[in-house]
UniProtKB/TrEMBL annotation, chains A, B:
Database matches in PANTHER family: GLYCEROL-3-PHOSPHATE REGULON REPRESSOR (PTHR30363:SF4), HTH-TYPE TRANSCRIPTIONAL REGULATOR SRLR-RELATED (PTHR30363)
Protein name: DeoR/GlpR transcriptional regulator
An annotated Gene Ontology molecular function: DNA-binding transcription factor activity
Species in which this protein is naturally found: Chitinophaga eiseniae
InterPro entries xrefs: Carb_Metab_HTH_regulators, DeoR-like_C, DeoR_HTH, NagB/RpiA_transferase-like, Tscrpt_reg_HTH_DeoR_CS, WH-like_DNA-bd_sf, WH_DNA-bd_sf
Lineage: Bacteria, Pseudomonadati, Bacteroidota, Chitinophagia, Chitinophagales
Length: 249, 249
DNA sequence: TCTGATTATGCGTGTTTTAGCATGTTTTAA
DNA sequence: TTAAAACATGCTAAAACACGCATAATCAGA
């Protein structure tokens, strides 16, 4: 086996799996690990791969993670905000949760929309109230240090007394098998109460959160009226949800 | 599994959920918690994440209005904040209004103070909750676009149900003849309810608001336990108040 | 085809990195 | 105050590594 041939094989493996282990290549091609290591070293010097302890990984795989997490997925979130705005009509009563997507939405709402917003997030409330035609009502309660939203029994109580047209919730985990899920018990309780208080339910999720599950169940998929992601509704990534009884945006 | 691959996975989880727990990663990838901790430590040293007890959080997950905006008379307000802090004891229950002075106070509270804060201001709430030993409870209600505090009947109702050790209120007008006054009917109602809910009342006012009157009366001077300004208690400017039954700070 | 030079490969040796475990300490929350 | 969780630290075994060297493969020119 020629050297170039071998390195082409390694390159193919990396393009295929985003990584290779020296031991794997050694076993597959029946060559010594030393040779593989020498190959990888050489390829790394040529800038073709990134050498790491144990093997090598694709250059394109590793690179994007270091650079830009400050604005990670922000473009996607603004895109989502634009879609949500289409759901909002004058004189609607809306209930929202927290999260960065919701803040983006609050910023992007057109100034001429006349509506009432209930929210458990002080940050969202403060953004919303900058729009002069909105009435903003905070559902008060104990403020969670980690998630910056109001939680606890008082929130649940207040939610029991209201009925809104639309509830906007961010999803933490979302999958066909488990429905909408979350990792925090308190959050689940609040989200459930929010869903009970709403006639229609819209779930907001960036595509990467789809098909992931957390420990606690929030609601079934059939309770959800709208699923909003940054993807086009006919994107193959959404195919598991296309036949379900929810509108994809 | 390669180390870099693992760290990329962790990075991805953090970008998705703003945080990770060491135990979760350990379970998901079937590796020891030690390894996860070592990874997080390393990533924290590289500045990729913020390490916290139990896991790590996204570097960008710090709420947005830290921009040290030039607040009017900020030095005086910080001075006042320092004086108020002397009134605060462990296990106190405090009720606060809004205003820039209160925000300065919220920032300046020592981290080791263990207390419960009720507040009608979402901004104050968000500042307070950054101190880990504080329990912060928002009194929710309609958010006023101008003053950024919660107002309305719902606030009054909730205030009727609580009793706190100390109420911190900013004054809009303050004089010997008229007592504490304000210009907005709604604000007066809320302030009165706050005073009713408190055993002791501390009024915060920068000196230039003293000896001015607004149209509506909030309370008499004899209901006030503490008057806090940036001046020394024996300042001649405060002489009209020195013989009254309130403590000057 | 042969020969010498060059390069590539495998192996032995010793070193470094890694991951899990045991131990004792600190932090956290009840 | 106390018990559990999270942590730091040191240690160990195994894996991955670098290096030198011997041998094997490759190639150019006669």
């Amino acid at each position: 086996m020629l050297k170039d041939e071998r390195q082409a094989f390694i390159m193919r493996q990396i393009n295929l799996h985003n990584k290779v282990l020296s031991t794997d290549i050694s076993a597959m091609l029946n060559i010594s690990e030393d040779t593989v290591r020498r190959d990888l070293k050489e390829m790394a010097e040529d800038g073709k791969v990134l050498k790491v302890h144990g093997g090598a990984i694709s250059r394109s795989f590793h690179y994007p993670f270091n650079a830009d997490n400050a604005v990670y997925a922000q473009a996607a979130k603004q895109q989502i905000a634009q879609k949500i705005i289409k759901l909002l009509k004058n004189d609607m009563v809306v209930l929202t949760g927290g999260g960065t997507t919701m803040i983006e939405l609050a910023k992007s709402i057109p100034d001429n929309l006349r509506a009432t917003f209930f929210t458990i997030s002080p940050l969202v409330a403060l953004e919303l109230v900058e729009h002069r035609n909105l009435t903003v009502i905070s559902i008060g309660g104990q403020l969670s240090p980690s998630s910056h939203v109001h939680m606890g029994a008082s929130v649940i109580n207040q939610l029991a007394d209201i009925k809104v047209d639309l509830c906007l919730l961010g999803a933490n985990g979302f999958s066909v098998q488990d429905g909408m899920t979350d990792s925090d018990w308190e959050v689940v309780q609040v989200k459930r109460a929010m869903i009970r208080a709403a006639k229609k339910l819209a779930i907001i999720s960036i595509a990467e959160k789809l098909n992931s599950s957390q420990r606690m169940k929030v609601c079934d998929l059939n309770q959800i009226n709208y699923l909003i992601t940054e993807l086009a509704p006919d994107n193959h990534f959404l195919s598991p949800y296309q036949q379900l009884d929810m509108e994809l945006l």
